Amino acid sequence: MGISFGVMTPQQGFTFQELARIWVEIERLGFDSAWIVDHFYPYFPEPYNRPISRRAPVLECWSTLAALSQVTKRIRLGPLVTCNSYRSPSLLAKISSTVDVISSGRLNFGIGAGWYEEEHRSYGFPFESFGSRAERLVEAIQLIKLM
């Protein structure tokens, strides 16, 4: 199978048009995959030497993946990683299967238990202990696979 190379591009502080140009270039350069983060506001202080404030725009992960799948043709794409706490497993199964169809089967599905307490609280999501989040992640994976 060989080694695959991918690029993660945080979408904070970028317009969709800027991000689309970056992804087209990633594909042109021969990378195998491209990934974006599942965050609602910036958490890196200064990506790409661009000062970012908490008020910088951040494109929502799954909507952006669907759109980026239309400006690329070959590369695999996915969230690095989607947060289990933000969406119910059944909704996440439907969203991810839709993006997979829209992208002609190019979705790589990455999921995690969530770690950013400030973001959880600011958007009204409970931030449970690591053990609880890990248990919910295991349950979510089982449900998503079944769906």
List strands and helices in order, with pairings.
Layout: E1 6-8, H1 16-28, E2 33-36, H2 61-68, E3 76-79, E4 82-83, H3 89-102, E5 111-112, H4 117-122, H5 130-146
Parallel strand pairs: 1-2, 2-3, 4-5
Helix pairs in contact: 2-3, 3-5
Comma- or semicolon-separated keywords:
single chain, 147 residues, alpha/beta, TIM Barrel, 3-stranded parallel beta sheet, 5 helices, globular
How would you sum up this structure, described in words?
The protein is α/β, with parallel strands linked by helices. The protein has a single domain (6-146), classed as Luciferase-like domain (TIM Barrel, Alpha-Beta Barrel). The protein is built from 5 helices and 5 strands; from the N terminus they run E-H-E-H-E-E-H-E-H-H. It has a 3-stranded parallel sheet, covered by helices on one side. Helix 3 (89-102) links the parallel strand 4 (82-83) and strand 5 (111-112). Helix 2 runs parallel beside helix 3. The chain is globular, with a radius of gyration of 16 Å. The two termini are 28 Å apart. The model has no long low-confidence stretch (mean pLDDT 91).
